[in-house]
Amino acid sequence: MPMVKEDHCAVIQNDETKFIVANAYFPNDQKQGIAFAKQMYSKVLELQTEYPEHVIFCAGDMNICLSSNENFMSDFIRNNNKVAELSDAYRSVHA
User: Fold this and answer.
1) 64 near 37, Cβ under 8 Å?
2) How far apart are the C-alpha atoms of 34 and 72, rounded to whole Å?
3) Would residue 51 count as lying in a domain?
4) pTM for this one?
């Protein structure tokens, strides 16, 4: 199965499977976390444009409570997830 690795992402495909896998470990510092998120989401959007038929998985540790509405970082991640059309697997099942 051919694989292309770029930054924190890998494109995996064969005749039957087409995936983009993104691995994220956000820094605990909010300023560094936002810089990391901007880089990661830019790469995800770039790969989605380059490989529109691929399914994307983004996993890792974002070091934030996404259900918090009082934190700029959680809003930033939720908004970028909407733009990239990513959803939280747990919340998709348990909402």
Assistant:
1) no
2) 9
3) yes
4) 0.81
Classify 25 as helix, strand or coil. Answer: strand
**Residue 3: its pLDDT value, please?**
56
Of 63, 58, 65, the residue nearest 87 (C-alpha): 58
Could you identify the residue written with the tokens 């540790």? 61
**pLDDT (tens digit, 9 = 90+) per residue, 5-58?**
567 788 889 888 999 999 888 888 888 988 998 999 999 999 999 999 999 999
Please indicate, yes or no, if residue 39 is contained in any of the structural domains.
Answer: yes
Domain count, the chain: 1
Residue at 19 is within a domain: yes
Q: Is 22 helix (H, G, I), strand (E, B) or coil?
A: strand
- Which token pair is 2? 């051919």
